[in-house]
Write a structure and sequence with these properties.
Among the domains are: 11-88, no CATH class; 103-164, Orthogonal Bundle (DNA Binding (I), subunit A). The protein is α+β, with helices and mostly antiparallel strands. Strand 1 and strand 2 (21-26) form a beta hairpin. The strands form 3 sheets. It has a 5-stranded mixed β-sheet. The chain contains 4 helices and 9 strands.
């Protein structure tokens, strides 16, 4: 099927066959997966989340009236609703690539939560802390860096946690796969995706 070249800016959530979120793709990639029968559309509009193949999705689209939050692509003969969520037919794994060590990914690993107070915060209120200070030989690594509220970081200074009266909520480790939250920022989560995300992404 030929689609006109002007494709709306839109993102589609991709689930593996176990209904786990694994990626976000653009409109062209989403329809490529659908046309090649590598994926089905999860019908988030009906509320029953029924998986629909390409023909079924086209048929469904013909009965949908334009409205808020709905976008269409147009062929010579059809207007096809842009899906919100795709379900892959065969892929059943989570991405297994190593995560790059940086500030953002440490925040994501720790769910934007101070590892000494357990309080979830906005990124602007957080910093990184060396559990074992660098002055004492502590390394800058997944296993020695945690997310920390700025004021707690100042309180701890160059001391070990117990010396500052602090205790870690979780022992820091290197993530085994790229968490889905690394793909999309909390502010970009669409309402239709929330049923399929692994955790609450609201930040208080």
């Amino acid at each position: 099927m030929d689609i006109i070249h002007e494709v709306p800016q839109h993102r589609v959530l991709v689930l593996n066959k176990n209904w786990q979120a694994v990626n976000i793709v653009g409109v062209k990639r989403a329809f490529s997966l659908l046309w090649q029968d590598h994926a089905r559309v999860i019908n988030t509009h009906s509320g029953d989340f029924a998986p629909l193949d390409a023909a079924e999705w086209i048929d469904h689209s013909t009965g949908v009236e334009p409205g808020p939050g709905l976008e269409f692509i147009h062929t010579v003969r059809l207007s096809i609703l842009i899906p919100k969520v795709l379900l892959l037919r065969s892929y059943d794994r989570l991405p297994a690539s190593e995560i790059k060590f940086n500030r953002e990914n440490v925040f994501i690993r720790d769910n934007f939560t101070c590892q000494y107070t357990g309080k979830r915060c906005k990124a602007a209120d957080l910093t990184l802390d060396h559990v074992i200070p660098r002055e004492r030989g502590g390394r800058t690594s997944w296993e020695n860096i945690v997310t920390c509220r700025r004021e707690i970081n100042s309180l701890k200074a160059n001391r070990l946690p117990h010396e500052a009266g602090l205790k870690l909520v979780h022992k820091p480790i290197q993530p085994k796969w790229r968490p889905f939250s690394a793909v999309v920022a909390a502010s970009d989560v669409e309402r239709d995706w929330q049923h399929f995300l692994p955790m609450d992404r609201s930040v208080s």
